Amino acid sequence: MDRIHILGGERLEGEVLIGGAKNAALPLMASSLLSSSPLTLSNLPHLVDITTMVQLLGDLGVKISMDGDSPNGGYAGRAIKMDASEPLEKSAPYDLVRKMRASVLVLGPLLARWGEAKVSMPGGCAIGTRPIDLHLSALEALGATIDLKEGYVNATAPNGLKGCEINFPFVSVGATENILMASTLAKGKTIIKNAAREPEIIDLANCLADMGASINGAGTDTMEVVGTEELNGTDYQIIPDRIETGTYAIASAITGGDLLLRGARFDTLSAFFSLLGKAGVEVIQENKGVRIKRTTEQLAAVDIYTEPYPGFPTDMQAQIMALMAVAKGKSIITESIFENRFMHVPELCRMGADIDVNGSSATVNGVSKLSGAELMATDLRASVSLILAGLVARGETIINRVYHLDRGYERVEEKLGMCGANIKRVSF
Ligand code: UD1
């Protein structure tokens, strides 16, 4: 077990290299199942969730090789080659799906290519119940028969999937990805309405297009896919992680720092950057990335409402709350995507933050100081919000259960330490 120790109060300055996007990498890896030729992905982040997907694909019979080469030092930027010429299994077991909900992304590709798939139901998780009903009803619309038995989804389509019109009742990133992948091998045209528009969806569509898929409208709410019999392999580079970008942007803002987020893409975080600007933080686009600089003494409180892309990302809600905890004035933060995503609130309050939760909204009254405390991480983004608060708190902050953090942040203590943070990981 590891813990993170932070001594707060250091101003951060320097450069942080932004890694490949976890949430783009996971569906891209699943899409290797669609082709009998190898798919090679570069800029792969080194994260526990990626290892879980490697294990899942490996268990299915995909031959995997990794190249640990990194042009920038450290572990970032590695490449993975996945050869799904002859998968042996069509089943994703409970043990892996339980660890990572995105395992469900193998369902569409397995079903589309082999006409059968068995995937454990993911169940609830810390941030809410998170069902997969949208994934399943869309696959049924494509002609699959779905049978739920003993905690597993058994999906079959012996004669293949057939294109149709799917109109999602609300936006789901994962369901859009699953159906996008499945429809590339369906017969005829599939129209996906109310599709998610996240940059990770565009990345997946771009890679699938490189593999020979015919896709129009990625990045809008309506996509059209014309199915093909076979896809080829390709070499594809994963986009930079916008949530890692946003997290280090807050690390700079909360410490009154000046960080260049190298490789970051401004265009994938416009709603977030615009709010950061309103809070009094400078956001500067540079050739090498995005610079985040705070020159004002006091941050201003801003209200936040999480929404599907291009709105403010739910995956940045916990981090912006840490920032608002030390801003001047009152901020109302409303979470519209997940029903239970305020688990960081009691921990932030233990550091002296003044936050009240009422249903899906939290009222944050900024305080002038936070103080270090021993804390418990509860989920991925909640863990990192505690680190951000610890960077500015007086005294020592100790964060337990950092395995949540390792699912989505690569070498966070090294990256922050190199910019001046007093932070270390301690194994016990
Ligand atoms: C993805 C991201 C996650 C992010 C989320 C929302 C990955 C690997 N994960 O998760 O980091 O927080 O998008 O931006 O990319 N829902 C249903 N039925 C379904 C599917 C979803 O009710 O069949 C609900 C969910 O419980 C949730 C909402 O829809 O309340 C949005 O979830 P969704 O967009 O599907 O999130 P994920 O794809 O799981």
Category by helix and strand content: alpha/beta
Q: Identify the bound ligands.
A: uridine-diphosphate-N-acetylglucosamine
Low-confidence stretches: none
Major sheet: arrangement of strands: 22-23-1-24
In whole angstroms, how far apart are the ends?
Answer: 6 Å
- Largest sheet descriptor: 4 strands, mixed
Supply Rg: 21 Å
What's the oligomerization state?
single chain
Share of residues in helices? 25-40%
Q: Tell me the fraction of residues in β-strands, as a range.
A: 25-35%
Query: Which whole number gives the mean pLDDT?
Result: 94
What is the total tally of β strands?
Answer: 24
Q: Note the overall shape.
A: elongated
**Number of H- or I-type helical stretches:** 14
Give a structural overview.
The chain has 14 helices and 24 strands. The chain is of the alpha/beta class. β12 (214-216) and β13 (222-226) form a beta hairpin. It starts with a strand and ends with a strand. The protein has a four-stranded mixed sheet. The structure holds uridine-diphosphate-N-acetylglucosamine (UD1). Uridine-diphosphate-N-acetylglucosamine binds at residues 23, 26, 101-102, 128, 130-135, 172-175, 314-315, 337-338. Uridine-diphosphate-N-acetylglucosamine binds next to α1, α5 and α6.
